[in-house]
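agent> Task received from the user: take the single chain below, predict its 3D structure, and emit structure tokens. No templates, no multimer pairing.
agent> Plan: (1) validate residues, (2) run structure prediction, (3) serialize to tokens, (4) report one or two observations.
agent> Step 1 OK, no nonstandard residues flagged.
tool_call: predict_structure(input=
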Amino acid sequence: MESKLRTIAKAITWQVLGLAMTGGLAWFHTGSMLTALSFALTTAASGLAFFIVHERLWARVRWGIGARRA
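)
tool_result: status=success, residues=70
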């Protein structure tokens, strides 16, 4: 199982990429930098929280992990 710190670091780097993409797309569609930034930050914050919960829950699932039988 990976550490909580590693899970958080992965979530943050993923959200930075998502923030840039979402912000760019929102700006393209709305023409408003403020609206784009607000939308991107809101989705990044919620996505970060849900990603961390999702990863920690999956860390408890043993399905698909372990030694293979011969």
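agent> Step 4: summary for the user.
DSSP finds two helices and no strands in the chain.
agent> Done.
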